[in-house]
Amino acid sequence: MQQQVQNIEFNASLNPLKQVEVTTNVHKFGGSSLANAACILRVVEIIKDNAKLNDFIVVSANGKTTDQLFELLESADNDQLFATQLKQLKDDQAALINELLDNNQAAQLLQQLTADIEFINTESANSFKQSRNDVLAFGELWSAKLLAAVLSQNVCKANAIDARKVLILDSGNNFQLNEQLSKTNITAEKLANQLNIFTGFIASDEQGNTQTLGRNGSDYSATIAAHLLNAQNVTLWTDVNGVYSADPRIVNTARKLFRLENSVAKELGRLGNPVLHANTLNPLTTHNIHLNVASSFAPQDSGTEIGAFGEIAKSEISVTHNNELIKIDSTEFDVKTLEQINTRFQPIYQCQNNTCIVISQQFADLALHYLQAQNITFSTLKVSLIAVVGYQVANRGEIKARFKRALKHTDIAQFVGSSNGHSLLAFFEHESSVELINKVHSQVTKDSRNIGLVIAGLGNIGKRFLEMLPQQLNRLPALENVHLVGLATSKKALINTDGIEVNQALELFQQDSLAYDNQLLLEWLSQHPYDELVLVDITPSEQFSNLYQAFFEQGIHVISANKCAGSSSTKAYNQLLNTQQLTGSQWLVNTTVGAGLPVNYAINDLLNSGDEINEVAGIFSGTLSWLFSNFDGSLAFSQLLQNALEQGFTEPDPRDDLSGLDVQRKLLILARLAGFELELTDIECQNLVPNSLIGLSTDEFLAQANLLDEYFADKLHEAKQQNGCLRYVARFSKTDSGYKAKVGLEILANDHAFANLTPCDNIFLLTTNWYQDNPLIIQGPGAGRDVTAGGLHSDLVNLCRELAVKTKEVEIKGIN
Ligand SMILES: NC(=O)C1=CN([C@@H]2O[C@H](COP(=O)(O)OP(=O)(O)OC[C@H]3O[C@@H](n4cnc5c(N)ncnc54)[C@H](OP(=O)(O)O)[C@@H]3O)[C@@H](O)[C@H]2O)C=CC1
Ligand SMILES: N[C@@H](CC=O)C(=O)O
C-alpha cells in the first residue's frame, strides 16, 4: 500500500520550498535515515522544513542495501545463496518503491530495478571481475531515484543526479578529485528551481569506470559537492544528534558539543571519531562553509555546528578513543615512502625520528602490501589510543597535567602531542578500558557545561549587576563556564555567540547593539549553542515577562528581579510553573521580594522542613520604608521621594511604590511561595497616589510630585497626634475560610517592631507552626543597587551550582 506524506501543503504561499535563494545548501542523509518507508517520509518532512529549491540532497543507499550488495559480491560462486540474496534485494527495493509511490511512478522505477537486477545476475557469471564498483553503485542510485520520485510526487520537482557523471577522480594522481572538470559537470547536471538529489559514495575516473569514495564516502560526497557549488551550509542528517565530548555509548556523562572549531573537528575525524570522518572536512577548508551534524530522528534538536568560531567553542575539550590501530616499526622508512604512506593511509601518528607510524587497521592490508612491494623490513603491533582533543590542547598545560593524572598507574606505551597541536595522544599495547576512557573524560572535561548568560535590562540595577560580573566570574569556580553572550534593553540587543568581553560589555553594547524585536530574540534563543542558557530579567517590563513561557518551553533558565511574572494571573503563573517543571527550566526569584534578603529561601526551607506558613507581615518596600522613616516634616515628602529615586530604591516609576502595587506584588509572590493560590486583586491595596497624578508620564508625575505634600503632611500630623508613626504595612494571614490579605498605610505605635527600622530596611515576620509564639524575623536593606545586584548574583551562583550536577540522559539511536 502506498504510504502518505503527512501535512504536505500544496498552497504555494505556505510551501517553504517556494522561497528560492541564490545560495545553495547541501543536506546529506545516511543509510539509516533512509532505512524504510517511514524513515524516507520523515526525511521528506525534514527536507520540507529545512531545504529550499536549488539545494542539493546527497543520499546514501537505503538501510543495509550496501551490505546486501557486498554479500552478493561475496556469494557469486554459490548459485543458490546468490539467487536467494538477489531475490531478497529485489524484493526489498520493490517494497520500498510500492510503499512510497503511486502506480505510474512506481512502474518506471520497478522497470529500471528489474534491468539492474538482471545486470547483477549476468555479471555474477564472471564473478564481477570488472563490475564490483558498478554493482556497489546501485545502492545510492536506487536511493536517489526513489527519493527524487517521492519528492516530485509530493513536494516539488526533484532531479536525481548520478554522481559518476560529476565527480571525476584522477587515476594518475592517487584518485584525487579533478576539481575543474567536476565543477563543470556539476553545473551542467544540476537543474534550476528544483531539488537535486545526488548519489553519495560514488564517482568515476577519466575512463568512466565507477570508483567508490571509501568508508562513509557519502559524507565526503556531500562536502565535495558543497565545495564545487560554493554552498553555504552542509548538514549531515544522521542517526546521532551531534558530536559528543566522548562516545556517549561508553561515557554516560558525555556532553553534546554544540560548536566545534574546524581544525578540532578535522582532528577528531583524523583520529577515528565515529561521526566525523577523516576526509569529510577536507573539501571545506578553502571556503567558509558551515558543516552541521543533526539527527534525522530528532530534527528539532540542535546538533553540532562545525566552523570558524571564537574562544568559547575553542575551549571545548573532548576525548576520543580508537582500539583498531596498528603500529608499524621500521628503520628503513625513507622520505618518499613516508610521503606515500601519508597520502594513502592517513597515519594517525608518525614518530619524530621516522621509525614508526600508527595507522587505522582498515588500511593495514593495503599498507603492508605496499611496504612489502617496496622491500621494506618492518614489524607490526596492535595498539589502541585515547586522545584528548581540543584547540591547541597540546599547549594547554593544565589539560595535559589532568590527562597525565588520569593515566597514572596505567601501562601507557607512549604519550605525545600531535604535530598540529590539537590533540594529546596516549597509546597502549592493549585495548583501552571503558573505565579508563571515563576517567580521562571526567578528569579533562570536569564534566563541565558551557552556560550562556543573557542580561535583559541595563538600568539602575542591571548596570550594577554587570559591573559586579567580571569579579564574580574570576572568583568563583561555579561560574567557570559562564559566558556573557547577550545584553538587551527595551529597543536594542547585542548577541554574540562567541561571548561578550565582560570588562567592556557596556561599551560593546553602545557600539554594536542592534534594534531587535521579541521574535528575533526568541529565534536566536531557540538556537543557542550552549548546554544551558540563563536569562536574567532586570527589566520592569510586563511585556518582557510575557516571554517567560517561551523561555521555559525552550529549557531556558530565568532569574527575575522583575516581579511581573511572579504576580501575574493564577492561570498564567501556574502555566509557567508547569512548563518549567516539564522542561527542567529553573526560575529563581529571590530579589523580587526584599532585594537580597533571603526571605524566599527561608519560606522554601520552612516548607521543605514540613512547616506551614500561617502569617506573613511586614514592611516590604525599601522606598516606603525609607520615606516614612525619614519623613518628620522637616523636608517636603516630594523632596524625599526625589532623593529615594536618586538612590535607586524606587521602581523606575515611583508611583508603583506609592500606589502600593509593588508591595501588593511582593505579598502575592510570598503568599504563592507559601503555597496559597490567590490573585493580585485578592489583596486589598491602599493607593497613595492621588487621581490627579495617575494618568501622567513618569516625568510629568515627578514634575508635579509636590501635589503629594499636603496629603502626607496631614497624615504625619494625624500619626503624631496618636503618638505613633506612619508605615506602609503588608499583612497576609491564613483564616478558617481561606486567607486575608491587605497592604496599606498604618499608624503604628512608636515602639512597634515595624516602627524602628533603619531607613530602607524591610522586615518580614513569618508566623509558622514551628515559629508561632515567637515569629521568625528577617530584616535588612530591602532595596538598592548593591543589595539587589548582589541578590541576583547569589541566584546565579546557586543556579550554576545546580546545573553543574544536573545529568542529562543522552538518547542514542546508534552510530552509523
Ligand atoms: N531598585 C531596587 O532596589 C529593586 C529593583 N527590582 C526590580 O529591578 C527591575 C529593574 O529596575 P531598575 O534597574 O531600577 O529599572 P530601570 O528603569 O533603571 O532600568 C530598566 C531597564 O530595563 C530595560 N527594559 C525596559 N523594558 C524592556 C523590555 N521590554 N525589554 C528589554 N529591556 C527592557 C530598560 O531599557 P531602556 O533603557 O531601553 O528603557 C532599562 O535598561 C525592576 O523590575 C524592579 O522592580 C527588584 C528588586 C529591588
Ligand atoms: N522599589 C522597590 C525596589 C525593590 O523591590 C522597593 O522600594 O522596595
Overview of the molecule:
The chain is an alpha/beta fold. The chain has 4 domains: 62-215, 3-Layer(aba) Sandwich (Carbamate kinase); 314-445, VC0802-like, CATH 3.30.2130.10; 451-594 and 798-804, NAD(P)-binding Rossmann-like Domain (Rossmann fold); 606-783, Dihydrodipicolinate Reductase, domain 2 (2-Layer Sandwich), CATH 3.30.360. The strands form 6 sheets. It has an 8-stranded mixed β-sheet, with helices on both faces. The radius of gyration is 34 Å and the shape is elongated. The chain binds NADPH dihydro-nicotinamide-adenine-dinucleotide phosphate and the ligand N[C@@H](CC=O)C(=O)O. Residues 456-462, 488-491, 538-541, 543-544, 561-563, 591, 595, 622, 648-649, 651-652, 783-784, 788 line the site of NADPH dihydro-nicotinamide-adenine-dinucleotide phosphate (NDP).
Topology:
Blueprint (H helix, E strand, L loop, with lengths): L24 E5 L7 H14 L5 E4 L5 H10 L4 H22 L2 H22 L7 H23 L3 E4 L6 E3 L5 E2 L1 H11 L5 E5 L2 E4 L4 E3 L4 H13 L3 E6 L4 E2 L11 E2 L1 E3 H9 L19 E6 L8 E4 L3 H4 L2 E13 L5 H11 L3 E2 L5 E5 L3 H10 L5 E12 L6 H11 L6 E4 L5 E6 L5 H12 L5 E6 L3 H16 L6 E7 L3 E4 L9 H8 L1 E2 L2 H9 L5 E6 L4 H4 L2 H6 L3 E4 L9 H14 L3 E2 L10 H10 L4 E7 L2 H9 L6 H10 L8 H4 L2 H13 L10 E2 L12 H6 L5 H13 L2 E12 L2 E12 L11 E8 L7 E6 L3 H20 L12
Parallel strand pairs: 1-2, 1-9, 2-6, 3-6, 4-7, 9-13, 12-14, 21-22, 21-25, 25-26, 26-27, 29-31
Antiparallel strand pairs: 4-5, 7-8, 10-11, 13-14, 15-17, 15-18, 16-17, 18-20, 19-20, 22-23, 23-24, 28-30, 28-32, 30-31, 32-33
